[in-house]
Amino acid sequence: MTKSITDLPIKAGIVGTGFAAKLRAQTLQADSRSHLVAVCGHTPAKTQVFAETHGTTVVDSWQQLVEHPELDLVFISTINRDHGTIARAALNAGKHVVTEYPLSLDPKEAESLITLAKAKGKLLHVEHIELLGGLHQALRQSLPQIGQPVYARYVTIAPKHPAPRGWTFNMELFGFPFIGALSRIHRFTDLFGEVASVYCQSQFWDAGDQYFTACLCNAQLRFTSGLIADITYGKGEMFRQRLRNFEVHGDQGTLLFEGDQGNLIKGEEIKPIEVAGRRGLFLKDTAMVIDHLVKGTPLYVSTVASCYTLKVADALRQSAATGNAIALSGSLASSRSVTKGQSL
Fold first, then answer.
1. Residue 158: which region, alpha, beta or left (left: phi > 0; alpha: psi -120 to 50)?
2. Which of the chain's ends, N or C, has fewer CB atoms near its CB within 10 Å?
3. What pLDDT is recorded for position 331?
């Protein structure tokens, strides 16, 4: 159990200077209960501008930041590959930790970090702002109206022309797409629970040196409830049309979301569903972390739930690599390959 912080303000540091880090910094500086002490980044000039903008101090490396004697809390907003390594170092240095998903690219390392955080009595929180967003909240509230869900489909396509030569287009730094973009799977595990088996296909358009110009991944998940879900994730130069569609079919109706427009369909009746915007979610996540550390209020997602989703995503990686479906145990403590071609 995390012990509440009574010595305010909470002194925080941020690893990273990107979009999420900027929003974290704004929230920390706007809340009288917290203070941004230090930041480190990949590019010195950009990090200096970030520090001047947010009234904080630059340190040379994440290693120096996690060992900073004044810090209570470390935010990890950097490349996916390094999340687990930085989280471990911060926990061992006695800091509370908040990281963007995924906690690690390796589910076993993620489990060991959860164990370490418990042993240290420190917060380990994995951000999953997709659960706070309007689409997910509308889905959750509307699901009872369609009866028993039997089939769901989620498609996100992001054209990029030209594809950036950045870390999100690098397999080593970003991870297998369904791990790097873990929210695509986490929406489903949060709404529909335990996964029985998975199958995945993937394709990459190579740019050399671990970089790609485009990727396309398609996954099929069968849940223990019997629901079957199809999830498609694509980005890069091969695509021309941006898509963000989510549909759920139940035995009493259908939910259909296209972008920010939602509808409940029952026979001939089509009822619009209001979908709130996505602005302010990182700020909300940060404020909830501060509330948790100060007042002990519960967070909106557990690290164990995030780790479970990571195991499902890693099974998808294995399936794409082998061409086999993967059957998962209830606890995902073990998995086994299914003969190629065998139905899920």
1. beta
2. N
3. 52
